[in-house]
Write a structure and sequence with these properties.
The chain is α+β, with helices and mostly antiparallel strands and 770 residues long. The protein is built from 24 helices and 26 strands. Strands 6, 7, 8, 9, 10, 11, 12 and 13 form an eight-stranded antiparallel sheet that branches. Strands 14-26-25-24-15-22-23 form a seven-stranded mixed sheet, with helices on both faces. The longest helix is centred in the N-terminal third of the chain and has 42 residues. 50% of the residues are buried. About 1% of the residues have low confidence.
Amino acid sequence: MTTTIDHQTKEAAISVDGMDCASCVAHVEQAMKQVPGVEACQVNLARGRATVRYNPATTDAEAISQAITKSGYPAELESIDDAKNVEEQRLLRQQAHARTWFYRAMAGVALWLPVELTHWTLKWMGQDHQHQAMAGGVDWMTWAALISSTLAMVYVGWGFYRGAWGALKRRTTDMDTLIAMGTSVAYVYSLVALLGYLGGAWRQLPDLYFMEASGLLALISLGHWLEARARDSAGSAIRKLMQLAPSTARRLNEAGEVEEVPVAQLHKGERVLVRPGDRVPMDGVVTEGRSSVDESMISGEPLPVLREAGDEVIGGTVNQDGRLVVRVMKVGSESALAQIVALVEKAQSAKPPVQRLADRIAAVFVPVVLGIALLTAVGWHAWGLAHHWEAAATWGMMAKAVCSVLIIACPCALGLALPAAMMVGTGRGAQRGILVRDIDALQNAERIDTVVLDKTGTITRGKPVVGRVVAMDGMSEGEILRLAASAEQFSEHPLARAIVGRANEEGLKLSSPDQFSNEPGYGVVARVEGRNLLVGSEALLRKQANGSALMDAPAVDGMGSIVHVAHQEEGGAVRRLGYVQITDQIKEDSARAIALLHAMKLRTVLLTGDNETTARAIARQVGIDDVRAGVRPDQKAAEIRKLQEETAGGAGANRRKVAMVGDGINDAPALAAADLGIAIGSGSDIAKESGDIVLVGSSLVEIAAAIRLSRATMRTIRQNLFCAFLYNVLAIPLAALGLLNPLIAAGAMALSDVTVIGNALLLRRAKIDG
């Protein structure tokens, strides 16, 4: 999958097979960075996916993919317009990968467990076969262990040896290197010790590790199978999103006939028929029909929404009870569903500084472990000589300790700690219509202590309507509405559109202004029918009056925005003609959403360009105490910075961490200035949003859910990284000191991987609702 960022930079997504640990990630990233023209790259171990940004004048995506393949990891470019098929192919590869490990694990268990159980049964009965030489050779159990471990080394161990050999040819090391060397140490030592005993080199049969060698392979393969299953489960959220898109669509040809075609063959401008119960195939606009559409799978909104001619619909949503004809407006990667998946995958590939540190450690981890293993062997050899151990005992202890060090030191958990948690956390958010752009958004969200909310379109529905018209100075209500609409007809402001819409509904004939000036944050100044009209806020009238006498503003109730209509005379005096009161209904869940934020000990602030009276009336209804009214769009960012300069908790406390919630386009400067920008109600224009977190739906309740999800995800990431580091820090010294049996080391290594992914999967059950 290749996308153009600008003329000098492109970005590609590449599927990568064969990665098992953090060392593999480091090798793949190194292979990409060595290609001239590559500017940045990231690898997601849990997804088996690499993203790379490069200069197309220097290289191309195919060359980068080939470089990865040559480094020993089969790679293939992903298709930008067939993401669903790409995901299905990835799933098939993951399932085949899991099956391979399952077969190896079952074979390993079948070759190891019966022999191991028999050994312990005989030992419990007092027949310690390994130290009882027989006249013709050794105990039959030893021969059984030799045969079963040899078969295990050949069949189960083949995959590890092949991987280790490939790494050796590339002059590098990886997890397979450690496992191959660890099992080889156990097996080869045991074979040499047995032959030495049969040849008379030892007076008694030394400790042999044939069963440990086969047990290691069985347990590690079993761990890899469980890990593969868990990875598959962790990545299920994206697949569920992909599955929302239907495979076929009912296209209407020019004759109005219906033909069923693959969705991938749809083009912009074509019409499709969506029957009750069907999923909308692509983003578009309704041209015919009227129906309720279930958008919960995209936006998280629980109730169906009414869609009729002129309304937008999103691909993947379900038409419930009516017939719709939809004109396709977005295809392929432009669709909302594709954008959601792209955002989620981008977030899953992001890495915080601690993970980048883990990756750097993993890059040199295997060589360091090999060095530790060598020092362990030298140390135990010296210890044995110093304490006058028999050679058999010394070499047996060396084999046990070295084998344990090599097996237990695999850096898998280190590489999976963050991507597993990110996959589950961002995937769960996407299913709720909560889209997290990157890891920084999660880190900032969990530290938020103040939430600033815009009024129009955030706390209110954002669809203002004319409540009433009040005429003064001998004017009629109809004339006030007509003049106001004539002046406002070229303005894009929501209040202006509401006035013009009401005038059109009443059939009023509007005049074109001879002059027109938009005053951002204030209103408009226009010359209509010979009058110099001022239509806007009280501040506009006072600004234009410039100290001239101005009649006091009329007293009005606080519920609604007031658009004043006035005439400015030639001498500069401003005369009020009347006003239009605009109302914007508060969303049903706004009060509940604010209560949820307060329950989380978060401070809430209402930031609006509306007048103080209206703003406080709205704030009182939803439960907000702190109101910043009369703030123009270009002043909102400065207001955010003022809040950030405040301290939370008195002297010496840290500055406030502020989240801004707005519509994502009009509030872009404030969203960018905040520690966390949350764009709400974005619908299908996800890519245009400037928020760090994008809420596809319009429900404010999802703000609290997004913050809770961020906190839970970051908590899981820290737990995983702590456990991964602690595991390696504690396990390697214990193994080097000979305190761990190789089988326990193998079990611990497998358990560490499964624990990290299992802990990430617990995010599915994390409580994020109030």
